[in-house]
Design brief:
- The complex is a heterodimer.
- Chain A is globular, with a radius of gyration of 13 Å.
- Helices cover 0% and strands 50% of the residues of chain A.
- In chain A, strands 2, 4, 5, 6, 9, 10 and 11 form a seven-stranded mixed sheet that branches. In chain A, strands 1-3-8-7 form a four-stranded antiparallel sheet, with no helix packed on it.
- Chain A has no helices and eleven strands.
- By secondary structure, chain A is mostly beta strands.
- In chain B, strands 2, 4, 5, 9, 10 and 11 form a six-stranded mixed sheet that branches.
- In chain B, strand 9 and strand 10 form a beta hairpin.
- By secondary structure, chain B is an all-beta fold.
- At the A-B interface, strand 4, strand 5, strand 9 and strand 10 of A face strand 4, strand 5, strand 9 and strand 10 of B.
């Protein structure tokens, strides 16, 4: 099946720990995105990538890092510098300027 | 800075009713607008994409319209069903080659049997 796969579905992070969220797509899309969703707020863009080995910061990139070594993969690392990481994280992909498709999300909780 | 507003934040209707969800945006220089559905704890499902040159798009019981000059879009749902209960989000992609989608906060729809 074609689509976007995010893993894990639930993730728990201890204080001071880095964690990596996985996002894989088999839709042959050039562009990939990471959004953060908090209750009562709209989705906010963390990072996006339009091509392999290139990515740009979104509106709330501080405390996060990404890589784009393969077209299919766009992992997001939540570093210890992110002071309030508890949120629902959504990965998306699309062809430039066209419809965006989303994964099922990863819920990250700080314990 | 582009801002997207969705009103109302929540809506409750009886089954079978036709309804309209509203989305407004502050900058009319958009490339396209996309409507999504989100079920609790799930990702977003794309419903309709309207390019800036289009006035409306239809898919089944859904019809989305776009009035770019006034900065508004509506999502019309005909003959609503309990399965339509979800949060509906609209997002605009600004012109200028930006890949950023700017989202509204959504309208939470409840369709009562």
């Amino acid at each position: 099946d074609g689509g976007i796969t995010q893993s894990p579905k639930y993730l728990f992070r201890k204080e001071g720990q880095n964690v990596t969220l996985s996002c894989e797509q088999n839709l042959n899309h050039d562009a990939m995105y990471w959004y953060r969703q908090d209750p009562g707020q709209g989705l906010r863009l963390i990072y996006y990538s339009q091509i392999v080995n290139d990515f740009q910061k979104g509106d709330i990139a501080e405390g996060y890092s990404v890589s784009r070594e393969k077209k299919e993969s766009f992992p997001l690392t939540v570093t210890s510098a992110q002071k309030n990481p508890t949120a629902f994280y959504l990965c998306a992909s699309g062809r430039a300027g066209t419809e965006a498709f989303f994964g099922q999300g990863t819920r990250l909780t700080v314990v | 800075k582009q801002e997207v507003t969705q009103i109302p934040a929540a809506l409750s209707v009886p089954e079978g009713e036709n309804l309209v969800l509203n989305c407004s945006f502050t900058d009319s220089a958009i490339y396209n607008l996309q409507w999504f559905r989100q079920d609790p704890g799930k990702g977003l499902t794309s419903l309709l994409l309207i390019q800036s040159s289009q006035r409306e798009q239809t898919s089944g019981r859904l019809n989305a319209s776009l009035d770019k000059s006034s900065g508004r879009s509506t999502l019309y749902i005909a003959a609503s069903q309990p399965g339509d209960s979800a949060t509906y989000l609209c997002a605009v992609r600004p012109q200028g080659g930006s890949e950023k989608l700017v989202f509204g906060k959504g309208t939470k729809l409840t369709v009562n049997p």
